[in-house]
């Protein structure tokens, strides 16, 4: 049902964990739906210096979270904002159709984390 | 350990079926000699199934294509034939979809249906049954046992309540048959759904027991086979296989079930003792011998299934992510579990090939699987983290 790449990320998730002093945090999903993910980012010179995730959900949810952090790490914030759910799924060799909208949420969590970082920056300037 | 999804056919059953694919190709309806042996085999199989459930006579058994058709026939057949008596039906909220969906269909055709609540163990609430029953109720459909949580219902008590209002009682015996003895006479069952593939028989064959004198309409009209209640040339080799299954179940059920119960209780205890925040789904004692339904907080079922599969263990889950719909199982939700609790459910269904060593293997690998997934989950409480 899943591609080898999805299974490989499920078995060995990259960047799993939390960043206690994160510059931005993004959470999407809902435990009621069966998928919940949080992405933590550390920003330095407009780049994602560090990124970590925590995910409650199925194999696809865990694999897409892992892959999203991998794609985003080291990128500028602008580049990271351009990462889409479709990029994540394609780079994993595709996902079963039912998983495309329910479990492939990590790109949204990444964007939410960056938005959170911008918001915090604005507040700090005030 | 996913025997509910599929069981191997018993080799003794295959052996009994083969002659009816190779040599006895005649039609049981034919008068000439080619039809004689098939006709005899058909009636022998019918008698074996009748004997297994203690039916008054073999003619009460009608062969169908499986449990789904039997459930459809019982519900729609009774509803349509008894419309003059009433248009009210009752079913439990944890029935199989092949009961729930015919009921929902009838709702669109002018019938009223009440779905009964269950308690946290999945037992049907008898008081609400009494409350819902009216003079207009023609049929009550309650499963003997639920395959997803293992809970066995109090069929005899339910029957007494149903019959006081002169309604018919249909029982879906699919999950229970072959594991616990079902006695239609003692337990007061008017219609009983049976399948063959859930008892190590071939797929595509089932039966509906219909008590003598029950008013029912056929679903399939045609050449008048099965007393006019289910037309179509009989699926003879499968019927012979089903008959053999019934014969073997009659002899072996008690020993096999005792063995399953030992494995079941070992697995339940092993998992619940070694994993914190783990719980049993369904009833602790009124429970199918093969059923180990458990749940683990803070993690999701499909990721557990994948992890088990990587270690060579097949199981099942009540989680949305393994099915075509996004909702978790209606059965788990009916027992009062929250969505996030239902998502963490795991179902092992044991079979007669499973061994103590296999059970111990699952007990040995499960704690690390849960621990790993909990480390990834944002829901895991701090005190559980290492």
Question: What tags apply to this protein structure?
Answer:
heterodimer; A: 126 residues; alpha+beta; three-stranded antiparallel beta sheet; 48% helix; globular; B: alpha/beta; Aspartate Aminotransferase, domain 2; Aspartate Aminotransferase, domain 1; seven-stranded mixed beta sheet; 13 helices
Write up this protein.
The complex is a heterodimer of chains A (about 130) and B (about 375). With about 130 residues, chain A is of the alpha+beta class. Chain A contains 6 helices and 3 strands. In chain A, a hairpin with a 2-residue loop joins strand 2 and strand 3. Chain B is of the alpha/beta class and about 375 residues long. Chain B has 2 domains: about 240 residues, Aspartate Aminotransferase, domain 2 (3-Layer(aba) Sandwich); about 120 residues, Aspartate Aminotransferase, domain 1, CATH 3.90.1150.10. In chain B, about 40% of the residues lie in helices and about 15% in strands. In chain B, helix 10 packs across helix 13. The radius of gyration of chain B is 22 Å and the shape is globular. The relative contact order of chain B is 0.15. Chains A and B meet through helix 1, strand 2, strand 3, helix 2 and helix 5 of A and helix 10 and helix 12 of B.
């Amino acid at each position: 049902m899943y591609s080898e790449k999805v299974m490989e990320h499920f078995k060995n998730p990259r960047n799993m964990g939390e960043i206690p002093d994160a510059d931005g945090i993004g959470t999407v999903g809902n435990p009621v739906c069966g998928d919940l993910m949080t992405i933590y980012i550390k920003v330095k010179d407009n780049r994602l210096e560090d990124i970590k995730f925590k995910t409650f959900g199925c194999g696809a949810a865990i694999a897409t979270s892992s892959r999203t952090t991998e794609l985003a790490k080291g990128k500028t914030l602008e580049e990271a904002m351009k990462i889409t759910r479709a990029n994540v799924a394609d780079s994993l060799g595709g996902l079963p159709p039912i998983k495309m909208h329910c479990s492939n949420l990590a790109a949204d969590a990444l964007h939410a984390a960056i938005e959170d970082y911008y918001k915090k920056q604005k507040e700090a300037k005030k | 350990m996913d025997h509910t999804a599929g069981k191997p056919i018993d080799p003794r059953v295959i052996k009994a079926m083969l002659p009816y694919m190779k040599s006895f190709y005649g039609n049981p309806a034919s008068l000439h000699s080619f039809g004689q042996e098939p006709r005899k085999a058909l009636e022998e199989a019918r008698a074996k199934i009748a004997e297994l459930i203690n039916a008054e006579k073999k003619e009460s058994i009608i062969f169908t294509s499986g449990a789904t058709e039997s459930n459809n026939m019982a519900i729609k057949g009774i509803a349509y034939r008894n419309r003059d008596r009433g248009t009210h039906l009752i079913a439990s909220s944890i029935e199989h979809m092949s009961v729930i969906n015919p009921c929902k269909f009838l709702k669109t055709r002018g019938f009223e249906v009440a779905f009964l609540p269950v308690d946290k163990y999945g037992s049907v609430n008898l008081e609400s049954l009494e409350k819902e029953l009216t003079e207009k109720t023609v049929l009550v459909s309650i499963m003997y046992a639920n395959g997803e949580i293992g809970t066995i219902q109090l069929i005899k008590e339910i029957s007494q309540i149903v019959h006081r209002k002169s309604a018919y009682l249909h029982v879906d015996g699919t999950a229970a048959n072959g594991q616990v003895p079902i006695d239609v006479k003692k337990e007061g069952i008017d219609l009983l759904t049976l399948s063959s593939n859930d008892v190590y028989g071939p797929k595509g064959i089932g039966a509906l027991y219909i008590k003598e004198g029950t008013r029912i309409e056929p679903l399939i009209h045609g050449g008048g086979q099965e007393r006019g209640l289910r037309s179509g040339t009989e699926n003879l080799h499968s019927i012979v296989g089903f008959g053999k299954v019934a014969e073997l179940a009659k002899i072996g059920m008690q020993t096999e079930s005792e063995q399953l119960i030992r494995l079941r209780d070992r697995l339940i205890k092993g998992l619940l003792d070694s994993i914190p925040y783990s719980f049993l789904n369904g009833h602790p004692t009124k429970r199918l011998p093969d059923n180990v339904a458990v749940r683990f907080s803070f993690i999701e079922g499909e990721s557990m299934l994948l992890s088990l599969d990587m270690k060579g263990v097949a199981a099942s889950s009540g989680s949305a992510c393994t099915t075509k719909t996004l909702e978790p199982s209606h059965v788990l939700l009916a027992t009062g579990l929250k969505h996030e609790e239902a998502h963490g459910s795991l179902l092992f269904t044991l079979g007669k090939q499973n061994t103590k060593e296999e059970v111990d293997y699952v007990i040995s690998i499960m704690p690390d699987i849960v621990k790993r997934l909990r480390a990834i989950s944002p829901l895991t409480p701090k005190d559980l983290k290492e």
